[in-house]
């Protein structure tokens, strides 16, 4: 999946930083860094589903960014946090199988 734009809403920016300690720059790095992406749920609007993007960023953090895929492959990040051990194992398996 190629994402052409990232849409930010202040309420989600605040949640990322205050609750999970993830900056906008870190979340954008995940989305720009050829992440492993998988669908995790249906959206409230037809065709706008929720996805998870997994990636390791430049500072070594393993992050997962949840986003709504808006029309035109525009990402609306709604949450982001450090991966747990199961998510990190999934990410590592997916990366290994794609090389």
Describe this structure in words.
By secondary structure, the protein is α+β, with helices and mostly antiparallel strands. Helix content is 33%, strand content 39%. It has three helices and five strands, in the order E-H-H-E-E-E-E-H. It has a five-stranded mixed sheet. A hairpin with a 3-residue loop joins strand 4 (62-70) and strand 5. The chain is globular. It starts with a strand and ends with a helix. 19% of the residues are buried.
pLDDT < 50 stretches: none
Classify the helix fraction into a percent range.
25-40%
Q: Profile the largest sheet.
A: 5 strands, mixed
Computed structural class: alpha+beta
Radius of gyration: 13 Å
Distance between the termini: 17 Å
Q: What general form does the structure show? A: globular
Number of strands: 5
How would you spell out the order of helices and strands?
EHHEEEEH
Strand order of the largest sheet: 1-5-4-3-2
